[in-house]
Design goal:
Radius of gyration: 18 Å
Distance between the termini: 27 Å
Order of helices and strands: HHHHHHHHHHHHH
Helix content: over 70%
Number of helices: 13
Largest sheet: none
Structural class: mainly alpha
Shape: globular
Length: 259
């Protein structure tokens, strides 16, 4: 992976992490187009960590409240919402890594994301606030996040859609979805650290310059994307992202079956 490729992929990750278009799907597609097939998971985890920076900046007050009072309902809600994705990531890690190299799987994931987003924009009865979120809500939203572990299926789109379907208002749905990204990303990092200690990933083989460039690029582009997404969800304009991912799936389909 060259330095320029790392920067481009970092920008893609930062934008796609918060826009409901699947960051993992776009990263996998970008790596496919660049002909990159080594070190996928390591780079993906690093640029995902880069996108933690915008979340911390935008939701710094909510995060600080969780740090000051860790034993509160929101903490428990986030834990419950994180468990399903953690289980899937641990037990289906090989399948997830294989899916990252399957272009046909990406197309199917993009179609699923598009259909979910179209349905989400039609949801109007969303008035439940953050303090009214139930443990059942958190569990169901967590299941949506678990499904989005596979590339092509948007994590932010799935979790926001599930939140809205449970009646949570749009602003708090986005807030809860983005706060959920913190333990999800940290958990993925922990898995990679375990691989390092087991010897499955050799630190000497990693290019820290390209990893660092990807990290910075994802952090900067992510900050722009998260603010744009917050404005879009308030105005119920997620269907435009649906049109994009459905068009992308169609392009992949033409490439696979016609060209």
């Amino acid at each position: 992976m060259t330095l320029l490729e790392a920067i481009i992929l970092g920008i893609i990750q930062g934008l796609a992490e918060f826009l409901p278009i699947s960051s993992s799907g776009h990263l996998a597609l970008g790596q496919y187009l660049f002909g990159i097939d080594e070190g996928n998971l390591v780079f993906i985890i690093v640029v995902h960590i880069g996108t933690l920076i915008p979340v911390v900046i935008v939701y710094r007050k909510a995060i600080w409240e969780l740090i000051k009072k860790p034993f509160q309902k929101m903490t428990y809600l986030l834990i419950i919402a994180t468990v399903p994705a953690a289980v899937v990531a641990i037990f289906f890690e090989d399948a997830i890594e294989a899916a990252l190299t399957s272009i046909s799987f990406l197309a199917a994931g993009f179609v699923a994301t598009g259909l979910v987003l179209i349905g989400t924009d039609r949801l109007r009865k969303t008035s439940k606030k953050s303090d009214e979120i139930t443990y059942l809500d958190a569990a169901l939203i967590g299941i949506a996040q678990a499904v989005a572990v596979f590339p092509g299926i948007s994590r932010s789109g799935s979790t926001i859609a599930a939140s809205l379907a449970r009646g949570i208002n749009r602003e708090d749905a986005a807030k809860f979805a983005f706060l959920m990204s913190i333990p999800a990303i940290l958990g993925a990092l922990l898995i990679q650290i375990i691989h390092v200690f087991r010897g499955n990933i050799v630190l000497a083989d990693l290019d820290f310059l390209t990893l660092g460039a990807g990290f910075v690029a994802s952090a900067l582009s992510g900050y722009l994307a998260i603010n744009f997404m917050l404005a879009a969800i308030k105005k119920a304009k997620l269907r435009y992202f649906a049109y994009y991912v459905l068009a992308l799936a169609a392009v992949i389909g033409v490439y696979l079956f016609i060209l």
